[in-house]
Each structure stands twice: as C-alpha cells, then as structure tokens.
Amino acid sequence: MKVTASFIIPTHNRSGSLKKMLNTLQLQSYPLQNFEVIVVADGCKDDTVEMVRNYHAGFNLLVCELPGLGAASARNKGASMANGQYLLFADDDMELSTDFIKEHIAAHTNERIVVVGYSPFKLETNASIQRMSVREWWEEKFHEMRKKDHWFKYDNLTSGNFSVSSHLFNKLKGFNTSLLCREDYELGYRLIKHGAQFHFAYTAKAFHRDEVTNLHRSLQRKKSEGMADIQIKKLHSDFINKEAIYYLSQRSILKSVLVKGIQYFPSLMDRTASFGETMMNLFERLRLLSSWSTMNYRLHQYWYLRGLMLGAGSYKQLYEFVMIPNVLMNEDRKLTIDLEKGIKSAEDEIDRLKPIVIEIYYGKNFIGTINCEPGMEAIKGYHLRKILKDKFSRELSVLLFPDQIFK
C-alpha cells in the first residue's frame, strides 16, 4: 500500500527512550503499512543505531546517522528520505496516544494545513518546582490554542509534535540549520507568511517525558533563545519580537542595571547569575515557592537579555533591531469597520476583504486599531469578538454604558 505518512524522529544518545517510543508506534490505530518511521541518529555514541537496526517493527523502519549537526539538520535529513505525503515530527522522548498518527492525518484537509498536536508535559513523582513551572507554561500555551477563536502566530509551531505536507515543507526548504535554537519558530514564521493554515489537534496527543531539562539547562537555553531571536531578525527584517520588546520596554531600575551590567561587566554579571541559580536550588529544597518564582523570572530575564546582547553586539544595535519597526503598511489592505452597524456585518467584511489593518469605530467614535503583524495568520471574522473583548472592552464599555464609572 502507498505510504501516507513519514514519521521522523531525531535522536541523540537516548536509546532507551527511543525504544519506548517505537513501542508506542507499534500500537497505532492507523494502519502500520501506511506509514514509515525514519530515525536520524545525530552524533549518537550509545547503541541507538544497533537497537533500531535490530528492532522488529510492524512498519517500515529506516535509520541514518549524522555527525552531531543538531535537531534541525536531523529533521531535514529525515524529510529528505521520506516517501510519505505528510511528514510527522516528534521528539524521541514522547509517549504517543494510539490515535496519534490517525488524528494528525485526519486534520490535513488541504495541502496548506499545518497540524500542531497536544503534548502534555508528563511529570514524575515529587517533581521539582522548575519542572512543574515548565508544565504550567506548556499547558497555558495549549489552552490558548485549543480555543476556536485562537489567532495563530509563528511561535505556536512546536517541533516536538507537528505535521505538514511534504510538498509544503520541501517548498520552503525545511528548517533553517543556521539557528542556535527556535528553528521551529522561524519555520512557523515562513509557513504563515506563505499562507499556511495552522490547526491545533488536541486529540493528536503525545505525553512529553523530557528526561533532560533541568534549571541550569533551562537558563542556558534562554540565553540561546535571545541569540536566536537576533538571528531571526537578521533573516526577516519585518520580524516583530514581542518577548524582546516586553523586556526592553520595562522602565525599571532593575532592567537598567541588567543592561548596563551586561554591556560593561558581563563576566561579573554571569557570576552573579550563577549565585542566583544556587539560591534557587536552596529555595527549591526549602519549598519557598514565592522566592523561587521571583528569582526564576529574574534569571530567565537576565539570560535572555544576555543572549540578545551577544547576538546584537551592543545595546544600541539591540534597541534598533528590536524597538524600531520595519513594517510597511499597505493602505490598500486597510479596513474601517463600524460596530454600530452590527458585529456580524464587520465579521463578514473582514472575511471578504482580508485586511492587514483594521480601524474600529462605533458610529463616529474611534475605538482602536488592529494590526495583523508579520508572523500572525491572516485575521478572520471569528477572531473579532475575542480581540474586542481582550483589547477594547474598556473603550466599548465607556461608550455603551456612559453612566458607569470606569477607573
């Protein structure tokens, strides 16, 4: 039978975890003869390759080796070997639901669909505060994507559980292998720019065991993310990084101290941050959640700014990269809507004209502007109600209920 799906797994020295994952693939409700599994052993020094070659699978199982080029290169290599119409990507420490592949394939109603699956973070008994906080972050992300009126953006793409047509993936030349990390975000950015439609499939479920992440790795990852965000900005001049803008917009003494310290005394600041990490471990042992959370936020902020500065070279260049927009507004794609004529009329206009800028009025009263920023999917009519509630509820309340007092 024809291979419909190619399941690609990059792996590095985790033979035991990989074998557990292969076992869950044996239990898939999707016909085993209709998918293939491609394992890319990237710089493996353990018995990964031997284990895969000796594994008795009910599906076609391929393995290849790379000399430690990174996950992006490994995924691209797997895609280059694939025979399936659809490419499914997952990390090597996932515990797949039996309907995982079936639900991914079912969601591909056209060639432009990109499916993001649900990957709940699986905690061990007596999990650390750090790992519980990571789980909370992921669950908030998935909770938002599960909403029917969610407005998808580039950072909703998670390389640990997603699928895309092989035609679309190859057309965009796959992952960018020059990035330190966040190659999934950068691919998500290009996919949306190309007109891809993101779809969240809650039923395409895979528990994420994540056996390696700890506090130190999380902090160093944040530094790499800062550097990668500058790389992405250099690749895409219209890229708007909300995380960097948030940190740089803060007019706090702490932010000023961090920026000046990073610029003039980086080694001293790194040692101070390392001491803060030691304090977090103490807070962990004493179960001082509030103190741990405060320090966790500050240290992640520090290492992210540290990465941004390393990527940009100086605070002046960083400010220019992040805070000065390079977006050309297309006046031909601007729509003015009047909510006094009815919200359904406004929703229909949005779907018909597909604007990138929307000016909202209620009669002659200006409410606000919606900008469809680069990296966000095209706005649709069903997004409007949530945007009005989240961004303009106060302005509308003042107009509709003028006798009430709003502070």
Could you name the CATH topology of the largest domain? Spore Coat Polysaccharide Biosynthesis Protein SpsA, Chain A
CATH architecture tag of the largest domain = Alpha-Beta Complex
The secondary structure category is alpha/beta
Quaternary structure of the protein: single chain
User: How many structurally independent domains?
Assistant: 3
The CATH superfamily label of the largest domain reads Spore Coat Polysaccharide Biosynthesis Protein SpsA, Chain A
Strand and helix order: EHEHEHEEHEHEHHEHHHHHHEHEEHH
Helicity level: 40-55%
Cα(first) to Cα(last) distance is 66 Å
Beta-strand percentage range: 15-25%
Number of helices: 16
The CATH class assignment of the largest domain is Alpha Beta
Essential attributes:
407 residues, alpha/beta, Spore Coat Polysaccharide Biosynthesis Protein SpsA, Chain A, 3 domains, eight-stranded mixed sheet, three-stranded mixed sheet, 11 strands
Provide a descriptive summary of the structure in words:
The protein has 407 residues and is α/β, with parallel strands linked by helices. It has three domains: 5-208, Spore Coat Polysaccharide Biosynthesis Protein SpsA, Chain A (Alpha-Beta Complex); 215-323, no CATH class; 331-399, no CATH class. Helix content is 48%, strand content 17%. The protein contains 16 helices and eleven strands. The strands form two sheets. It has an eight-stranded mixed sheet with strand order 3-2-1-4-7-6-8-5, sandwiched between helices. Strands 9-10-11 form a three-stranded mixed sheet, with helices on one face. Strand 1 (5-11), helix 1 and strand 2 (35-42) form a beta-alpha-beta unit.
